[in-house]
Structures are given as C-alpha cells and as structure tokens.
Amino acid sequence: MTSQFGLTPQGFKIKRLPDIHAENQNLLLAAFGEINLDPQSIFGQLIGVLSKVEADIWENMQDVYFSQYPNSAEGISLDNVVQLNAITRLAAQQTNVTAVCAGLEGTLINQGALARIPDTGAVFFCQADSFISRSHAASASIVVGAAAAQSYTAIINNQTITYSLPIITFTGSFVTGNSIVVTLNGTTLAAVPFNTSNDQTLTDLAAAIAANPDVLSATPTIPNIISIVPVLGKNVVVNSIVITGGASQPTYAVTFDTPTINAVSQNLTSIINATISTVLATDLIGSLSIVADDPDVPFSISVGTNLSISSQSSPITFLSQNFAPIAAPINTLVEILTPISGWNSINNPKAGVTGRFIETDAELRIRRNNSIRLLGAGTVESIRARLLQQVPGVTSAFIFENRTMTQEPIDIVLNQDLVTGNTITIVFNTIQTLPIVTFATSHLDTMNAIAIDIANQPQIASAVVGGTANRTITVSMKEAVEVAITTFSVTGGASQAQAVFKGGRLAKSFEAVVEGGSDADVANKIWLTKPAGIQTFGNTSFTITDSQGEQQVINFSRPTPIYIWVTVALTLYSEETFPPNGQDLVAEAINTYGNNLGIGVDVLLQRVLAQIFTVPGIASGAMQIAATNSPGDSPLYGTADIPIQENEIAIFDLSRITVTV
Question: For residue 153, what are the β-bridge partners?
Fold first, then answer.
C-alpha cells in the first residue's frame, strides 16, 4: 500500500508535527500498553522531543524535494538546477568605463588611482598600471612649428601622412626628339614630346602634370622650373621623370617650396581625414587636433621636422569601487581624486558599461525561462533570447516584424515649426529630389504643401500632416515599393527645423532594437539566427563575412534617444525637515528613475512626479515635462505623458532637470 506521506503521485507530502506526534503515541501504546501520555509525563515529554526532531527531518526532505525545480529552488540549489539549461547566475559586476586621461607623455596612472563623478559622488579606480602615451592615444594635438621648404610628415597607425609643395628643377634644356614621362603618386602620366622649344615643352609638361586629379596646379617658370600645388586632402610625390630621345637629355631635381603654417595644418587635416578612417582631424589654424572615433580603438602617432605634439591623451579603463548598477553617463567622470604629476584631466567620451548586483533568484528564474528559447532559430523569441543571453554587454533587446508585403509608414518629425524664409529640400532613395518647397503663409500650410509634393510621387500611397503641433508627416507607400527618405533639409529663414525619420520597416523584414554590446557581436548573432530570405532593418549596419566567404550587411537599430526635460516647483511640508541639498537629491531621484526606464517605455508624468517624495520635507510638487530629438533643442513643456516608441529610449540628464522651491 502506497504511503500517504513522502513521494506520492501528487508530489511530496510532508508529515506534519501533529501526524508524527499521534503516530509516536500509538507506537508507544502498542509497545507498552496503557501508559501515561500526558505532556508532563516522561513518555509525553519523550514523544514531544522525538516528534520535533522527526518533523525537522521531514521539512528538510521537503526542501530537498523542492530544490530540484527552478520555480522553488533557491540559492546554490537554483544555481545547480539552471545549469541543466547551460546557464549560470550572473555575478555582481563593477561599472566599466573607458576614461580618456590627458597629460604629459609617459605619465604613469597607477593601478588603483581614483577619479570621481562629481554629480553622484561615484568613485572609480584605474584597473591596471597604464601610461599616457602617443603610441596608445585617444587624442593628440600637432603644432606646426615653422614654415620651411620641406615635406611635413606625421605617422598615424604606421601610415605616413605627408604634405609638401614639390618643385621640379631641370638642369639643361629640352631638345628636339626628347620624350618626357612623369610618374606622380605611383601613376605614370602620358609621355610629353618635345614641342617647338624648351619653353613650350616645359609649358606642355606642366599642363600634363596639372591634369592629374591629385594636382590643383602646376605652374611653369621659364626656362626650367615647375611648381606643384596638391589638391586639398592630397599630397603629390614625384616618383620619377624619365627623359628619352634627342641628342641630349636634361636631368632634374625635386625640392620643395615653403608653404604657410596655416596651409600645413589645413592640408594635413584634410589628408588625415581622407586617409585614416579611425580618427577625426580638426584644423585649428596653425595646429590640428586628432581624436579617435572610438576611444576603445586608440591610435599611434609621431611627427617629423617642424611638427611637434603639444598634448596627448590615452584611453584607460576605470572600474567602479562598488559592484552595483552605477551609471557613468557620457562626459561625467571628470574629477581626479589621486593627484599624479603629469596627469592633467580625465573624461569619458562614451558612457560606461553599467555594472550590476549579483543576479537574484527571481531574475535568474526569468532568464532561465527565456533561455529555453535559445535552441530555436528564426523566430522572434529565439533571436531576442540569443541577443540577450549570448551577446556580451547587451542589456535590452526587442524584435519587431513587418509581415506584410507593404513597407510600414515613415514619420517625418520636425523639432520646431517652419518659419518665413525656409526652403525645404527632400530627397528619396539618395537620388530622387522632390520639387523644392518654400514657406507658404503658415507652418501648417507649408507642411501641407510638402505632404502634397510627397503624395504626388508614384511610389507613395498617401502623405498626411499630424502629430504634436502638426510637426509630423506620415508617409505611406504602395505595395511592393521600398522608399528611403535620405534628406529633409531646411535652409533660410530665422531658424531651421530639423527632421527625424521614424518607422519605415521594409516589407517582410524585422528590426532588432538592441541596447549594449558591440556592433560586430550583435550583427553576427543576428546573422546566425535570422530566417533565410528575410531582410534586416534598422538605423545601424555592420558587414559580416559568412561561412561561405560572402559579405552580408546586417541592419539593426540602436534605440533612438528622446531627450527628456523636467521642471518641478516644490511646496515644502513644515512638519518635516527638507535637506539643505534637497533640490539636488530630488533631481538625482528623477534622473535615476528616468534612466532606468529602458527601450519603448513611456514617460508618465505622475510616475516621474512620485520620485520627489523619496526626499523628506515635501508636501507637493507642480511638474511639467517635455521631449526633444536633440539635447540642444528648445523644450515645449506641458503636463501630458510622453509616448516613447518601441525603438526609442528616454534619456534623462541632470542638466535638463530644474527643481525650484
């Protein structure tokens, strides 16, 4: 007969203390007959002691039973269970931020050197001994020391960048029968034959050199000099001049003219930007600054005669002191706490990778449930699960589909009204320019005129004006047509509105909106899980090479930032003490809440307002909020909630939060 306790077809049934107590009484009565079982008797007390011990054993057995299942296991037992799904609990992590440290060449930033975010007080330390070095630079400034008849040289990432004004000087005259072949920048020009006289031949040779696309001008100076000026962004090197034929052949020498200091900085800037894709050079008139596009990808730099490096910085990894989700927004890690000679400044041009507390049991259970989808591929759930679970640094991911044969509508959203004097130019698919629209009577009339022009295009089904303050044009396409609005340019007038394009997923495509992770890792994971024959869509593209050696362009989206503005006037509560820094605390509470909303979460005014009550001494608050497409736009405050689209994310910042009392 199956026991009613322990493992049963209905699961594990625990034997409770009353059951054990009654069972032990019956056993003693069966063994000893009629005995005194009162609680105060020896047998009664013995039964009580033994029953409690046995009840504890049953409870432990119940815990062991439930520890085998993910919904009831806890702690280490849950860690063991989820390993069956090939996942492990996420450990606590420190926030990791790449800080650009500027100072003297060769300055050592010791492991453990401290820096701080002033607004929040969060302290970070240098992960390992690191140097400020031109061989590992995030930025550098080059000064042109003097104007000289020479070639100016900078070496960036082992690529030699040069600028000069070559002068060709011939010794002797050209004679009948001579044929002159010049090679510039590795390209051999067509032969120039002797023509009439030495002077005419020199003129013809200068014209042939000037026809080279890298040459701005080649000026002959009779009887034997040609001065060459390169096109901006190019340098000209005279590789060789071969002269054949005739009774004699003149020789030549290449020297250099003296450029102005400003011309050197201007041309080196243009050549660097045209040659090296990983840095951006800026001409500062007589000097130039060079900044890495990505501080995580530093560059090396050295310079030649009459150029000097006046300042440099290097990317150095800093970690938060605490293992916690400590935010390190862009340009906030700016305070040096550990004074080091030669270390002048610190900043983080990229937001840090936010740390975390150790994963809780509840979070681990949710992640395990999501991970069950990892074995699939080609579905929304499996693509999302793999992005979240298998791509380092991804903190949020959503997948959106367009299953129809028609491209989704595109919203053209302006950040302000159109005004008198504005001229609007729109380009479709890079090459198709619509008729230019000029401001007509009012903002709304002008928007309607633009919508009519768009609707008249053969691939467009409709274009409708709407949205907040009539600043949005919703463009719908005809079936089996794909449209990209590549330009919406406003010129003229007292101010120029800027446009943001939203929506427009192509027919039979999907869009992965991903926060965190590198572009390469995200693109490769999408390629490995996406359905065959289905397009990817998004505002970011990355080219990967598949297993067959073919290049594949993978599109996905980074969430479009919507910049949130908050103003709140506090009324204080006299029976509580409002802290001296209460206004700052309120702003920080709002900022922390807002930046944890995530992708696609609306900004609800009442929920933002609720954050003020985390600070004591407040009776009420009058709040208004606004949203802009750029942090430099002017906000239009109101009390309405702010909708955040599925591929957008609300961005709060202390600089856009105003608290008054």
Answer: 162
Given the DSSP bridges, would you call strands 648-651 and 560-572 parallel, antiparallel or unpaired? Answer: parallel
Q: Which residues are bridge partners to 94 per DSSP? A: 323
Strands (E), 380-518: 396-402, 410-414, 423-428, 432-433, 437-438, 460-466, 472-477, 485-491, 499-503, 509-515
- Same structural domain for residues 440 and 294? no
Q: Tokens 């004591």 — which residue? A: 616
Letter for the amino acid at 581?
N
| Rounded Cα gap, residues 477 and 479, in angstroms | 7
Which residues have a Cβ under 8 Å from the Cβ of 97 and sit 6 or more positions away?
124, 317, 318, 319, 320, 328, 333, 348, 350, 351, 352, 353
Which structural domain, as residue segments, surrounds residue 15? 6-66
552 plus 571 within the same structural domain: no
List, in sequence order, the alpha helices (H) in 7-41.
17-32
Residue 137 pLDDT > 50, yes or no? yes
What's the mean per-residue pLDDT of the chain? 90
Kindly state whether residues 262 and 239 are assigned to the same domain: no
Tell me, yes or no, whether 576 and 653 share the same domain.
yes
Paired sense of beta strands 94-103 and 139-144, if any:
unpaired
231 pLDDT above the threshold of 70: yes
- Per the listing, tokens 């492990």 go with 88
What is the model's pLDDT at position 28? 85
Helix, strand, coil % in the chain, rounded to nearest 5: 25, 35, 40
Q: Are residues 448 and 575 both part of a single domain? A: no
559 upstream amide cis, omega within 30 of 0: no
229 and 165 Cβ atoms separated by less than 8 Å: yes
Tell me: the pLDDT tens digits for 212-227? Answer: 999 999 999 999 999 9
> What does the alpha-carbon distance between residue 472 and residue 413 come to, in Å, rounded to a whole number?
4
